[in-house]
């Protein structure tokens, strides 16, 4: 099948590559900019496991072809796949309005972009207006982006479920056929109306964010009650009504898409005339939680931090990512700098992004070796739970650090073992 995929998002690249791997002929239309230039050089702009190799393979096979945004769809194509950034809805309307109109040709527009609720219906109306004379019965469906950065390619190739919003039966069948190669074990498509699919995507994100913020609140309360939040988490997760997912307290969540989706849901509620008190509080708790490690450090040193050196392990908003969008490290750095702290940071992938964000500063030193970052440090803060940090050389840490103080923002270390090894330890609600 011939498909034209539009966008330079991670979702666009993953979708185009995965669809090409199933034998489809895919034309990837990319806007001008940095990502487009990288793709033209044969580079993969996202550090996503498996994506670069599969993109190269599909390009060599000729099934994945790079194209410009203003190049019209292939003559044999009948599927337009939109995976644009959330602020590019104007571009979606432009693409739909420029589709060739032919009485014998039905277009299927798959909207995978995270636009406001009702956007797919607006695109359907725009497409119908554009085709008024031909009236071919083309359709727009919503297939929300549920991919998780760091597991995006596998999330598409082995999707547990899809949300498909479609009002036309032939469109449902065609999307099901496109997705069939990626999960033959069961029918993983949840069928609904377009606006229901769009709203479900936002509602899922809101629920996950709410669970995270709730657990962070519980962890902070556990600190004051001399309770270990880890045992509480196990007890909560054992209740089948609750389950184990997203019950891990930490130093706040980040990520451009995750945070933006929560804010989009809150905005949708407000526009509808409803109070977004719960989501507003979720976001407030999350921003406050990003300074949790700073507050523990501040209390430990009796509010005297000026002139101290602090090491941070992890800057990316999540493991397996090179991005720092809304990452807890950003607010943490600002708090430390305000107190006159010199900060040394290590991250496997996100140092370049952090350097671009911070600029040249004497109080920020970036390291490619995690143990070099801790030399002479008065404390080590773990912010992103990269696997390489889970089993550190504690003897080397103790020898290199000025003071053996560990602040675990992701509760990945065992408090008893760390303390037995001669360190002072602070976690999030841990004892």
State the helical fraction.
40-55%
Strand order of the largest sheet: 3-2-1-4-5-6
Number of domains: 3
For the record, the CATH architecture of the largest domain stands as 3-Layer(aba) Sandwich
N/C terminus separation:
58 Å
CATH superfamily of the largest domain: NAD(P)-binding Rossmann-like Domain
Percent of residues in β-strands: 5-15%
Radius of gyration equals 24 Å
Q: What does the overall shape look like?
A: elongated
Classify the secondary structure makeup into a structural class: alpha/beta
Q: Biggest sheet, in brief?
A: 6 strands, parallel
User: What value does the average pLDDT take?
Assistant: 93
* CATH class annotation of the largest domain: Alpha Beta
Binding site for substrate: 201, 246-250, 254, 318
InterPro entries: 6-PGluconate_DH-like_C_sf, NAD(P)-bd_dom_sf, UDP-Glc/GDP-Man, UDP-Glc/GDP-Man_DH_C, UDP-Glc/GDP-Man_DH_C_sf, UDP-Glc/GDP-Man_DH_dimer, UDP-Glc/GDP-Man_DH_N, UDPglc_DH_bac
Organism: Halopseudomonas laoshanensis
Catalytic activity: UDP-alpha-D-glucose + 2 NAD(+) + H2O = UDP-alpha-D-glucuronate + 2 NADH + 3 H(+)
């Amino acid at each position: 099948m011939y498909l034209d995929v539009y966008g330079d998002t991670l979702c666009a690249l993953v979708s185009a590559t995965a669809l090409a791997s199933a034998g489809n002929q895919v034309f990837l239309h990319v806007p001008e900019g940095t990502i487009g230039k990288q793709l033209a050089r044969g580079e993969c702009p996202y550090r996503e496991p498996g994506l670069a190799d599969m993109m190269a393979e599909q390009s060599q096979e000729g099934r994945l072809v790079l194209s410009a945004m203003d190049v019209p769809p292939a003559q044999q194509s009948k599927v337009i796949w939109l995976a644009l950034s959330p602020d590019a809805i104007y571009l979606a309307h432009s693409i739909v309005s420029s589709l060739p109109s032919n009485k014998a040709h039905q277009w299927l527009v798959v909207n995978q972009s995270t636009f406001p609720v009702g956007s797919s219906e607006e695109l359907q109306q725009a497409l119908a207006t554009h085709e008024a004379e031909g009236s071919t019965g083309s359709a727009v469906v919503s297939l929300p982006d549920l991919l998780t950065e760091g597991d995006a390619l596998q999330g598409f190739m082995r999707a547990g479920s899809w949300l498909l919003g479609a009002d036309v039966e032939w469109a449902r069948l065609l999307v099901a056929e496109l997705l069939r190669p990626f999960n033959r074990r069961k029918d993983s498509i949840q069928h609904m109306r377009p606006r229901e699919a769009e709203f479900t995507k936002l509602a899922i994100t809101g629920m996950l964010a709410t669970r995270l913020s709730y657990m962070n609140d519980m962890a902070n309360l556990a600190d004051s009650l001399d309770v270990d939040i880890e045992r509480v988490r196990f007890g909560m997760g054992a209740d089948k009504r609750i389950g184990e997912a997203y019950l891990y307290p930490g130093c706040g969540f980040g990520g451009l898409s995750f945070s933006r989706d929560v804010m989009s849901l809150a905005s949708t509620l407000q526009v509808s005339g409803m109070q977004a008190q719960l989501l507003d509080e979720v976001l407030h708790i999350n921003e406050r939680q990003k300074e949790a490690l700073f507050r523990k450090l501040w209390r430990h040193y009796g509010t005297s931090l000026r002139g101290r050196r602090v090491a941070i392990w992890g800057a990316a908003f999540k493991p397996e990512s090179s991005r720092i969008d809304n990452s807890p490290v950003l607010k943490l750095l600002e708090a430390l700098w305000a107190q006159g702290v010199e900060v040394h940071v290590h991250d496997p992938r996100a140092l370049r992004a952090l350097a671009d964000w911070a600029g040249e500063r004497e109080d920020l030193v970036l390291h490619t070796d995690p143990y070099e970052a801790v030399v002479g440090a008065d404390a080590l803060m773990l912010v992103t739970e990269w696997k390489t940090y889970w089993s550190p050389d504690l003897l080397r840490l103790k020898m290199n650090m000025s003071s053996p103080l560990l602040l675990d923002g992701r509760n990945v270390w065992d408090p008893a073992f760390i303390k037995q090894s001669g360190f002072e330890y602070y976690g999030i609600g841990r004892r």
